[in-house]
Amino acid sequence: MRATATSNGSAPPAHRVVLTGFGVFSSIGVGAAEFAEGLRSGRSGAKPITRFETEGFAHANGCEVVGFAPDRWIRNLDIDELGPATRFSVAAARMAIDHAGLDETYLRERRGLISIGTTDGESHDLDRLVETEIHHGPEKMDPVVARRVAPSRLATSVAHELRLHDVEAVTIPTACAAGNYAIGYGYDAVRTGEVEFALCGGADAMCRKTFAGFYRLGTIAPDHCRPFDKDRKGILTGEGAGVLVLETLESALRRGATIYAEILGYGLNCDAAHPVAPNQSSIARCMELALENAGVKPDQVDLVSAHGTGTKANDVTETRAVRDVYGSEPPRTVSLKSMLGHSMGAASALAAIACALAITNDFVPPTINHRETDPECEIDCVPNEAVEAQLQIVQNNGMAFGGNNAVVILAKYEEQAS
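Above: the chain sequence. Below: its structure as tokens.
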């Protein structure tokens, strides 16, 4: 989305963009309050995978969402017509508007945007269809499941559930950086006045295809995810959804909304240097772009929420990029994936919510499962225990295969912009 020029050719004044509601489904908590408590306490979502058959794998821990009851949140759509990732995105959107004190009627009268990021779309359902085809032939595929697999439904189903008609609904498939991409897309639209609200975030459901792919790459940890630890073994796949309500400051103040944080800016780039290996200079440049867009200097940032997957390549490359930007004494740099696992397209959206909750509640979430920091990862990862801290500005990193990088800068809401 782009700003529309005024009659004299100048761009319209930019709006401040604030966060007023969150929808959270994660392996460590459902809803903003439970999620914040899980972050502060260093809760682990790791457990044996039950979502699909794991016979043949030497180890199969993951971070599943437990006790998800979609019928509590999805009121207008037939749940059976929605794939598992779409159920997450729709439920999280409903939760987010409830948390923000909004209702369908209010939103229906306003222009809006829905942007949902994903890695796998409805790959869990695709797994089922392929299994049926192999064992019984394509004619035995379940037509209900087949209708659910279009990834566009992660966003369009939100519009259908909330009965919104004056909205753009887009699913953004930039893999593990997709949540931040979706937030940046919504930020631009709200900031320029093109829309009055945006529901942005990411969603993915665990699937055998992605687990097996990472397993074959040798990047699935045998027990726990240990980012930045010298003995780290890799990721744990996870799932869930995070949806954020973005609106202008004027709108939030007018309706007396609780403001959890402000978005100051974001940066995107794609180096396309390698299918899976991260690129240090590109990651550093993306961080610089985000800081420039936000009008923030490096010494103003209090915390970096790292992509922090727990793989050898990611952790070293990312921490070196952080030091390239921040120098020899970078801000505390934590990995929420130590608790949540890697929730794919939901990862940076859930992390953005975590950043806002950390700002609101004055704490830094820990990097759990930590024993000894890798000497090549020269950062303070806040090992194992949360620390109290008054955070003003926080950076949220998201990185993906193919060199897709996305960084969002959030800040404590102040009446006057600094």
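The longest helix spans residues 84-99.
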